[in-house]
């Protein structure tokens, strides 16, 4: 069972629509740790750590996001493994 961490940047109409809360809900369903936070430029940054299959599932979910959002693009990159407690909304 391979573990990994991915940092993703989501662009579009993703702030003020509950995107971080929905992302945290999806991440917790997948037993992932990390965070979702708004960036000053209007994007949402997501760190997801856990089983490789679960991380990939969350990245796929980010391409659509919740019904209230309009995702234009998701850029993601593998990042160094880190132990994070829970999934935070920042």
What labels would you give this structure?
90 residues, alpha+beta, 2 helices, globular, Acylphosphatase, acylphosphatase activity, EC 3.6.1.7
Task: Report what the structure shows.
The chain is an alpha+beta fold. Helices cover 24% and strands 42% of the residues. It is built from 2 helices and 5 strands, in the order βαββαββ. The chain has helices spanning 19-29, 52-62; strands at 3-13, 33-38, 44-51, 70-79, 87-89. The protein has a 5-stranded mixed β-sheet with strand order 4-1-3-2-5, covered by helices on one side. A hairpin with a 5-residue loop joins strand 2 and strand 3. The longest helix is centred in the N-terminal third of the chain and has 11 residues, at 19-29. The termini are far apart. Its EC number is 3.6.1.7. It catalyses: an acyl phosphate + H2O = a carboxylate + phosphate + H(+). Keywords: Hydrolase. The active site is at residues 20, 38.
SSE topology:
Blueprint lengths: L2 E11 L5 H11 L3 E6 L5 E8 H11 L7 E10 L7 E3 L1
Parallel strand pairs: 2-5
Antiparallel strand pairs: 1-3, 1-4, 2-3
- Low-confidence regions: none
Tell me the helix content.
Answer: 10-25%
User: Mean pLDDT, as a whole number?
Assistant: 96
The share of residues in extended strands comes to 35-45%
* Oligomeric state of this protein: single chain
* Rg over alpha carbons: 12 Å
N to C succession of SSEs = EHEEHEE
For the largest sheet, list the strands in their spatial order. Answer: 4-1-3-2-5
Largest sheet: 5 strands, mixed
- Number of distinct beta strands: 5
Shape: globular
In whole angstroms, the N-to-C terminal distance is 29 Å
Helical run tally: 2
Structural class: alpha+beta
């Amino acid at each position: 069972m391979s573990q990994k961490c991915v940092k993703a940047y989501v662009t579009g109409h993703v702030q003020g629509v509950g995107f971080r809360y929905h992302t945290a809900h999806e991440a917790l369903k997948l037993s992932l740790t990390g965070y979702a936070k708004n960036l000053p430029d209007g994007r949402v940054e997501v760190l997801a750590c856990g089983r490789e299959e679960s991380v990939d599932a969350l990245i796929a979910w980010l391409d659509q996001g919740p019904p209230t959002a309009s995702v234009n693009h998701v850029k993601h990159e593998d990042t160094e493994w880190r132990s994070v407690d829970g999934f935070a909304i920042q």
